[in-house]
Model the fold of this input.
Amino acid sequence: MKRNILISLVVIGALTLSTFAVRDAVLKSKGNSYQTSELVADSPLQGAQVQNCTISSEYPDFTYAAEKSVKGVVFVKVVKRSKAQEMPDIFEYFFGGGGGYGMPREQVGSGSGVIISQDGYIVTNNHVVSGADEIEVTLDDDKVFTARLIGTDPATDIALIKIDAQDLPVIPLGNSDNLRLGEWVLAIGSPYGLTGTITAGIVSAKGRSMPNNTGEFKIESFIQTDAAVNPGNSGGALVNIRGELVGINTAIISQTGSYSGYSFAVPVNIAKKITDDFIKYGSVRRGMLGISMVKNSDKIKDEMKLSLSDGVYIAEVVEGGAAQKAGVKAGDVLVAIGSTRVTSPSQVQEIVNRYSPDDTLSLTVVRGKDRLTINAKLQGKESGENENVVAAAEKINVFGATLVPAPEQSLRKLRLSHGVKVASVEKGRMKDAGIKEGMIITYLNRQSVSTPSEVAQVIRRSSGTILIEAVNTDGTIYYNELKL
Done:
């Protein structure tokens, strides 16, 4: 009897093991993705049957990229000091003496940075270190260094700092042009001072620009992701799953000041050009094309009687600029730079920003029914010099209205000598003031305006309300007040 029982147990055990072996073989052949209807014995609903539950090991593994990259991201602490206030005259009268009263106030802020060389060069954001009196860097191993500022570039929000150290861990540079929509990326930084924080998301969009209400020259072609980014992440790394640096985390869109689903990074191809210039020349050597542009559309095609609605519509060519000297004309449609097809002004800005003065770009433009190839030699401009000339060739967003220089054709049609065209209007104060798409704004507070930056300058200098004079597409004059 005992012998028969023992034989039965051995047979049952062998059958059980062979059953699991067969199942494992099947799972292995299917890539570890299978469906199960096994009993969940340890669940609160013990004995309930789980039907058609798919279990898969086919998911991205972030461990390599995270462990490889986190040591190359640093914590950046900045100290800004305000000057002591001077003693009011009444105090001088009673107590004499001049001098100052009150102690200088310190403002402490923080952000992140990315090590780009073993000898201590670190890239971060301009808005993190601009105006800092002291910059302190803490490495992943908690070593602390005093950093010195090498250069800042407000146009791209990129800055370069340096610490005296050797053999630092460096994140290898990737190619932000090769990023694809839906590709996994990691954001690494120090949100709220929590150093070495890693979050994951996907590339949601490329070539994003954000409203610019200041009129300042900006080069924006952001990588948009849904990786969680919060205050303190600025200047940190955006890496792909191979552990390559593809962007510098810069901004979020939020109504609360905290992450709400949208974060933005400066592409590494832009950051590399800026930091290389700082190291080689001490300033940014930016090649300028000299055009004002707006994204082409069916509406512009119909209005301007163009032959296509692709590419970028050139609304104005800067007098004496590289484009004009090469033969580009207002009304041309720029469809490609070199072998790269262009679809938005921000993309054009990003491409041009990679080049230096005296470099030559091959531009493909459509003029009427003709397709032309024009070689334009970029002109030079040091960072921080003559910004208004550049800003005049760009579009800006003011209170919900996107403004561009008025095309020559529109000015001639309406018999105007100057003005700024309203390219689009969304919810905001401009719309509340009755400003509509297609209008030409000619005067603000009886001051003539010819460029978007002049509009922004008048608004910055004003308070209360501004009297707007604009011309409708039918030539009628429109007046209203813009409430500030």
